[in-house]
């Protein structure tokens, strides 16, 4: 009897090769999931850099006067510049540094100065770095954002929008089947502008 039970117990164990077969079946699925997580991590890192850069530029432009004429100084490190399109170019290089490499054919940085008084939105100026995009926001959406922010009547704002085509780092076929490559990223920041509020 003891020998019968012993043989039955041994036959209930998995064959040694079964675990290897199961691992071989599961391994491609795990690799697909891990590679997707890595690609998403790269994408998230780029998107966070875009958000930080848009916020830094908007914070810088919140204290600039959009009505000032072109002073022709460019990115002069000695004399500086007060002309806000040049401010965008100069400060974008600092805000993004070498982390984001913009493609002049597809990417863009868009700056809009406007004031909000109830449902009325008055746009003072809009500047586009590469002229590839227009604002994603309608006047109604801008008015709604300003109202939710508790803006007083005739409050001026600066809106910075960054458009970037993210080209996948890994670009593996099982990812590009489901997700477009490149992916269009859009980050924005809106802040009050002291000069427009005084007009």
Task: Write up what this structure looks like.
- The longest helix has 46 residues, at 16-61.
- The chain is elongated.
- It has one domain (27-198).
- With 199 residues, it is an alpha+beta fold.
- The mean pLDDT is 84.
- It is built from six helices and four strands.
- The chain has a four-stranded antiparallel beta sheet.
What is this structure's SSE topology?
Blueprint: H1 2-11, H2 16-61, H3 84-96, E1 108-117, E2 120-128, H4 139-148, E3 155-166, H5 173-176, E4 183-192, H6 194-198
Antiparallel strand pairs: 1-2, 1-3, 3-4
Which terms would index this structure?
199 residues; alpha+beta; 4-stranded antiparallel beta sheet; 6 helices; 4 strands; 44% helix; elongated
- Low-pLDDT residue intervals, each spanning 5 or more residues: none
Q: Radius of gyration, rounded?
A: 27 Å
**Total number of β-strand segments?**
4
* Number of structural units classed as domains: 1
Strand order of the largest sheet: 2-1-3-4
Oligomer: single chain
Describe the sheet with the most strands: 4 strands, antiparallel
Mean pLDDT: 84
What share of the residues does DSSP label as strand, in percent?
15-25%
């Amino acid at each position: 009897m003891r020998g019968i039970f012993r043989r039955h117990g041994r036959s209930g164990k998995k064959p040694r090769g079964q675990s290897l077969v199961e691992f071989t079946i599961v391994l491609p699925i795990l690799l697909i999931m891990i590679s997707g997580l890595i690609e998403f991590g790269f994408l998230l890192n780029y998107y966070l850099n875009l958000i930080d850069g848009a916020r830094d530029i908007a914070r810088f432009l919140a204290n600039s006067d959009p009505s000032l004429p072109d002073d022709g100084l460019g990115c002069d490190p000695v004399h500086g510049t007060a002309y806000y399109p040049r401010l965008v170019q100069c400060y974008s290089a600092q805000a993004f540094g070498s982390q984001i490499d913009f493609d002049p054919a597809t990417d863009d940085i868009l700056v809009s100065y406007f004031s909000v008084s109830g449902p009325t939105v008055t746009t003072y100026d809009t500047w586009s770095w590469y002229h590839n995009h227009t604002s994603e926001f309608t006047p109604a959406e801008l008015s709604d954002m300003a109202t939710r922010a508790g803006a007083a009547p005739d409050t001026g704002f600066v809106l910075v929008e960054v458009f970037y085509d993210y080209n996948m780092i890994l670009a593996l076929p099982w990812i590009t089947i489901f997700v477009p490559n490149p992916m269009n990223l859009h980050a924005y920041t809106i802040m009050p502008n002291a000069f427009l509020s005084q007009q």
